[in-house]
Amino acid sequence: MYCVRCGVKLQEGEARCPLCDTPVWNPEADGNGENREKNYPDTMPRHYRETRRPAAIALTILCALAVAVVLIICFRLNRRLGWGGYVVGGIGLFYVIAVLPCWFLHPRAEVFLPVGHAAAALYVLYICLSVGGRWFLPFAFPVIAASCILSEAMLCLLKYVHRGRAFIFGGFLILLGGYTMLVEFFEHLAFGTGMFRWSLFSLAGFGAAGLFLLVLGMISPFRQSMKKRFFF
């Protein structure tokens, strides 16, 4: 049996096409050729989609308790924050990335993505200052900033551009390979390490995958064949 819309071969018992999500139409099973009446909705009820706030409250309480326990232990044993700062900072980073979006009914990923990167930058800055390092500005800051720009651009393209996904993913993989070279370059500037020790391998791998997707996007019959075979 095949999908009536895109022609993908369907497995026995499938209710919807795994590629285009079209409901399976089987005239032999329906008898008169009409779809049977459904006794369930197509979308999740609104009540169940808005239940993230209790989880946010519970996680907030757990994070606050964890921070309180760490602070009590540190100041009772060492009279100073010490190693507890790393734990508290990690909990704060987890809260910003995983818990903070749960407070919003419709969190915008393109807003919370740079917020998460900013929280990660502050945490890394704290670590750098705690160990007396001078590598934040020459290494960590540009690496995190480039990661934020690259991922934000990818997210916005996927959200607002509804065609040419093969070109988007292909270009992203090529840029990701270039990003690894950028990381190694800033590592060379900050720590004096050698260049092209590992980034060329990642550039070759990501570049090859990206070029494959670009070719896939340019050749329509090849793209359709890949969609039907691998749901790509």
Structure description:
This protein is mainly α and 232 residues long. Among the domains are: 1-38, no CATH class; 134-232. Helices cover 67% and strands 0% of the residues. It is built from 9 helices and no strands. The chain has helices at residues 27-30, 46-49, 52-77, 84-99, 109-130, 136-160, 165-191, 199-218, 220-230. Helix 4 packs antiparallel against helix 5 (109-130). The radius of gyration is 25 Å and the shape is flat. Mean pLDDT is 85; it is low at 30-35.
Key phrases:
232 residues; mainly alpha; 9 helices; 67% helix; 0% strand; flat
**How would you classify the helix and strand content by structural class?**
mainly alpha
Q: Kindly provide the radius of gyration, computed on alpha-carbon positions and rounded to a whole number of angstroms.
A: 25 Å
Q: State the separation between the terminal residues, measured CA to CA.
A: 20 Å
Look at the structure and give the mean pLDDT: 85
Question: Helicity, in percent?
Answer: 55-70%
- Main beta sheet: strand number and arrangement? none
Count of extended strands: 0
How many helical elements? Answer: 9
Low-confidence stretches: 30-35
